């Protein structure tokens, strides 16, 4: 600094001020640059050099950790870790090796959540390589090339400390791009460590094993006595076949300590496949035969064996979306009644097909998200236990402590609050072995961490995984549960026991309000319009069934289809849900139209009274009854029609219904024919035709006129005869007629005779004046 001051003073004494300042600043800048460059050339400390190199390069190699066995090792076990390393750099890696590293013990559940997304390798937090000759050499790894590895290490060489969860890392170290050896890639997982049974109390763990599928079956059937069902596709057969999703769920769950949660609609659908069924779209008049009978029978047999010794919980038939009902459907009259019907049908379906009596007092809203309205709707249908999740019913202050799942929420109802971390571990794709393996280790680590939170307290924890796990997700869940079978820190319990567990006094027992429901889930709900359409279909069905002689043939398939219209499986598929509802309503309308009036042409009524026939067609396989046919005249003063006639038509037949009519005046009359149900509601579409009344024809008028003329002439003749007779009497000498002429005189040719009984002219007039006889047919 003194030297700098001296230099500055010299410059100031010999150089003009502006030039001095410029030289001074330039000199200082050059000195700073040289200083920085010099420092950059100093040798770095080994740790710092390794840290910076690893931070820059540990992302250049992909390390996948595919298997860890055993998943929860004991002291005398040998740990085997296998996977694959892939060189993603542009340089060949030489002198490489793969090794295990044991990091520090993890102390919180949130640290477990973050294990897969941490920063690149850090010597301080990832720990040193496990000692001994346990590494695997990778001599040369060209760009884009991968190598499999398998590391085998006695557990004692891991030098694990006290019981708990440890971070376990796999690293690839080597040389790349001319640099010295460094860590080029790392993958971390978790290692739960409790070599013996806990000294405290074990956690009672309930794992739900869901057997739910997308809606597959509509109400459509073939027009035969067997009511052969028609499926839109045969995709379900693939899920039931060996290796399929549903087949794997049954095969894996058979020997696991789980509670089966089953949608009865799936059982009913598969049971329908065990018989003859067809595949075809709504407009396909000749659906093709289905080919899944064999796998359907095998799957049901396997399921019957699998659930024999397990508790079975039956969801309401069709797995109705309770949240959608609570938020969008409860204000639609009659919508909530379907939930009650679905609950009642659930028990019958499961018991009939599987031979076990299920529990039907549990409701499971989507993802365990609940609010007060959801709980109200669920319990209104008889579900006294509502399966929620801890990210919906949160603990005060955001505590990570996991209390007992059961919570008393009033009215004799219980909320079963599943642990969110354990329940969501297996979400997402598990196709890659690395993802599946990490999920298994995370599940075991979380379950051990829960136990370590309060080992002196016995708690009941429930796991409610995704509703429709994929095959890979189911396999990962099964692997995790198998890791707990030795019962070192957990013991299994069914859902019924979890519901009866003594609640934790400090646990949150408050159900959140409607405003807390997640927007992401609310956007997937069925709209109000969907429930209105469902009710229109139900109303159509109610009107249709009352006229059927075998209503169950229609009520059963359509009632089930209406329940399926509310299924949780429609979330995220609004177009599919709408198409399904339209298909159900369209098919019902098609059946209703099978009973109809046959169109009628105009008719001519050629008499004063006649019979008008109207034909009713029944295209159904069963008979119809309870209908009445009404003919309405637009001009009753001109054409009067008798009272309505009852209608009863056998299956596949026609019936001609006849109405007596009376004509009062000539002219056209429009007539409406319509069917009505017993409750007075119109059935089907009316038909219209015109009756031309011509009962008083010109010929009839001529006959009548002639008759009247004859009557007049006859009357005139009588009058004249009587007048002449009176004149003769008067001319013959008195009223006594003594001089009235010879009593035997019959008169001449011009003399009139008295009228005799049975005069032909009078009879003719009387006969022609009568109206036409009844029963004259209508001219068509």
What gyration radius follows from the Cα positions, in whole Å? 48 Å
Content-based structural category: alpha/beta
**Distance, first to last CA:** 129 Å
Number of strands: 29
C-alpha geometry: elongated
Mean pLDDT: 85
Largest sheet at a glance? 5 strands, parallel
Strand portion, in percent?
A: 15-25%
Low-confidence stretches: 1-58, 733-780
Helix content: 25-40%
Task: Note the total helix count.
Answer: 22
What does this structure look like?
- The chain crosses the membrane at residues 699-720.
- This is DUF6049 family protein.
- Strand 1 and strand 2 form a beta hairpin.
- The termini are far apart.
- The chain is elongated.
- Strands 8, 10, 13, 18 and 19 form a five-stranded parallel sheet that branches.
- It has 22 helices and 29 strands.
């Amino acid at each position: 600094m003194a030297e700098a001051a001296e230099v500055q003073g010299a410059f100031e004494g010999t150089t003009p001020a502006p030039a001095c300042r410029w030289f001074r600043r330039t000199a200082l800048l050059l000195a700073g640059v040289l200083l920085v460059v010099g420092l950059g050339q100093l040798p770095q400390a080994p740790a710092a050099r390794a840290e910076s190199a690893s931070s820059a390069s540990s992302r250049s190699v992909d390390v996948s950790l595919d298997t860890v066995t055993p998943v929860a090792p004991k002291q005398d076990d040998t740990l085997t870790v296998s996977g694959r390393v892939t060189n993603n750099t542009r340089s060949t890696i030489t002198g490489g090796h793969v090794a295990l590293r044991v990091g520090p013990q993890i102390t919180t559940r949130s640290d477990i959540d973050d294990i897969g997304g941490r920063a690149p390798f850090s010597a301080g937090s990832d720990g040193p390589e496990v000692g001994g000759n346990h590494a695997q050499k990778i001599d040369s790894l060209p760009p884009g090339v991968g190598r499999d590895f398998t590391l085998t290490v006695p557990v004692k060489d891991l030098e694990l400390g006290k019981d708990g969860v440890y971070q376990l890392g796999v690293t690839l170290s080597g040389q790349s791009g001319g640099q010295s050896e460094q860590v080029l890639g790392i993958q971390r997982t978790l290692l739960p460590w409790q070599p013996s049974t806990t000294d405290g109390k074990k956690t009672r763990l309930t794992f739900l094993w869901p057997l739910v599928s997308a809606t597959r079956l509509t109400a459509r059937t073939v027009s035969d006595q067997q009511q052969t069902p028609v499926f839109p596709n045969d995709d379900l057969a693939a899920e039931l076949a060996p290796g399929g999703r549903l087949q794997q769920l049954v095969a894996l769950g058979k020997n696991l300590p789980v509670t089966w949660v089953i949608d009865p609609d799936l059982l009913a659908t598969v049971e329908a496949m065990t018989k003859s069924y067809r595949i075809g779209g709504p407009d396909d008049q000749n659906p093709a035969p289905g080919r899944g009978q064999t796998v359907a029978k095998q799957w049901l047999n396997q399921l019957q064996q699998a659930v024999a010794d397990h508790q079975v919980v039956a969801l309401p038939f069709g797995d109705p979306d309770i949240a959608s009902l609570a938020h969008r459907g409860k204000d639609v009259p009659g919508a909530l009644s379907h939930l009650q019907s679905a609950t009642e049908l659930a028990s019958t379906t499961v018991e009939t097909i599987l031979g076990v009596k299920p529990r039907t007092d549990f409701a499971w809203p989507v993802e365990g998200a609940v609010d007060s309205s959801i709980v109200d709707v669920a319990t209104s249908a008889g579900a006294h236990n509502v399966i929620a999740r801890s990210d919906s019913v949160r603990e005060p202050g955001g505590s990570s402590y996991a209390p007992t799942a059961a919570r008393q929420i009033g009215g004799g109802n219980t909320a079963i609050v599943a642990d969110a971390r354990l329940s969501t571990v297996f979400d997402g794709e598990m196709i890659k072995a690395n993802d599946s393996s990490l999920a298994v280790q995370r599940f075991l680590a979380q379950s051990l961490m829960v136990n370590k939170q309060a080992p002196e307290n016995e708690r009941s924890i429930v796991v409610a995984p995704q509703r429709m796990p994929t095959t890979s997700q189911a396999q990962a869940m099964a692997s995790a549960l198998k890791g707990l079978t030795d019962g070192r820190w957990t013991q299994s319990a069914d859902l019924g026991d979890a519901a009866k567990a003594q609640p934790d006094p400090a646990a949150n027992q408050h159900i959140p309000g409607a405003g807390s429901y997640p927007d992401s889930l609310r956007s997937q709900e069925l709209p109000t319009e969907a429930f209105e359409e469902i009710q229109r279909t139900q109303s159509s069905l109610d009107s249709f069934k009352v006229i059927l002689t075998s209503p169950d043939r229609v009520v059963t398939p359509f009632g089930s289809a209406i329940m399926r219209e509310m299924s949780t499986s429609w979330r995220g598929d609004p177009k599919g849900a709408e198409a399904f509802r339209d298909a159900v309503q369209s098919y019902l309308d098609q059946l209703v139209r099978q009973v109809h009036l046959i169109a009628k042409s105009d008719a001519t009524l050629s008499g004063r009274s006649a019979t008008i026939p109207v034909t009713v067609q029944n295209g159904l396989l069963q008979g119809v009854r309870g209908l009445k046919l009404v003919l309405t005249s637009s001009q009753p003063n001109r054409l009067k029609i008798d009272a309505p006639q009852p209608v009863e038509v056998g299956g596949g037949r026609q019936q001609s219904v006849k109405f007596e009519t009376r004509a009062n005046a000539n002219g056209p009359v429009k007539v409406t024919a319509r069917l009505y149900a017993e409750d007075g509601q119109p059935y089907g579409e009316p038909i219209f035709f015109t009756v031309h009344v011509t009962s008083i024809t010109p010929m009839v008028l001529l006959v009548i006129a002639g008759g009247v003329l004859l009557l007049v002439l006859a009357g005139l003749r009588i009058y004249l005869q009587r007048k002449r007779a009176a004149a003769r009497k008067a001319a013959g000498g008195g009223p006594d007629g003594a001089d009235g002429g010879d009593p035997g005189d019959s008169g001449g040719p011009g003399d009139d005779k008295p009228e005799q009984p049975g005069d032909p002219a009078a009879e003719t007039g009387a006969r022609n004046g009568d109206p036409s006889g009844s029963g004259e047919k209508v001219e068509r």
